Amino acid sequence: MTASIAVTGLGLVTPAGIGVDDTWTGVCAGQATAAPDPALAGLPVDFSCRVPLAEQDLDRRVGRKAWRMGRFAKLAVLAAREAVRDAGLDPASWDGARVATVIGCGMGGLEKLEEQYARLEQRGADLTSPLAIPMIIPNLGTGEVSIDLRSRGPGLSPATACASGASAIATARDLLVGGLCDIAVTGGVEAAVSRVCTIGFWRMGALSVRSDRAAASRPFAADRDGFVMAEGAGILVLERTADATARGVRPRALLAGCGSTSDAHHPTALPEDAHGAEAALRTALAEAGLAPDDVDHVNAHGTSTPLNDAAEAALIARVLPHRPSVTAAKGVLGHTLGASGAIEAALTVLTLQHHRIPPIANLQAPAPEFDIDCVTKRPRQQDLRTAVSHSFGFGGHNVVLALTAP
Fold it and tell me: Would you please indicate which residues are annotated as catalytic (active-site) residues?
């Protein structure tokens, strides 16, 4: 890869807040957002991390077309608008044919699917919604953002489970490098805190069942027992650095390298030696022209599940033995599934920009067997030049993004 890629805009809608500033403040405070969820009442796991917007408030922010959108698409539209504003771009004046929209989503509108199935069973086919399909299918996050922003370039919706948002960013980078667009609105979205999805993860043993709900997600802790379901959206605006410079914009960060691999191992389990994740990490660093000891910071995938945290901690210690600082946002935000890789990439950009590392919520110290430098209890100030963001998904998908200060 020869073209330098700049991150010029960020947009976030997360359980910690609406917008980049509120999310960053919440994540740096290290306060978990897990709380009882009325939609999950009566289930073995009845709590989640929700975006703090009631549906009517979300609709009001989105505007007149909200009635036709699933919740996940609404979140994507809000985050994309913020990211484009942050980049100093105006969709009314850009050449939409040169703007790509690449937004990953793993699940789509599962809540709407459950609602429509119940209506079919209880009230009959004639009373189901003619908008059910566009409110459910995962690519409508990309579709509605493209409509909202009038972006007519490549429109793609990677679905690599919990790596979807990071896969989207890597794909958007490739479109820019290949000259297929000049601007990419990219990231991930998910709003799949549904009863069936929650029960499915619970039956797999992936969810925390702690009675102390606020302390349930605890990445890299010795007593971790699973993640907490969450929703949210993270959008980045990417441009070639030369183009950003030409319009007088200083990048928030540079996307210096991307690594994407498959484990070819198991539908859900990360291999104990994390060979695919290691290959993705080494590829991202090689693309960026970096050695492992150049890495100052790791934004870990950190799901708070016993096996995945163990494999990731071993990977970090093996490839980065100089012990860079490590954080994991899922302690605060829960697991936003297909949005997580993009949200965490955005947080990594902010970490580089502010030289401030958010703490891992609910973690006093990492498990004794983990030889990694976890940031705990309070934010850490650190001079940072280079960071990596890890994303791993069911199906054996691994994506690592290498980001550098501009």
Answer: 162, 301, 335
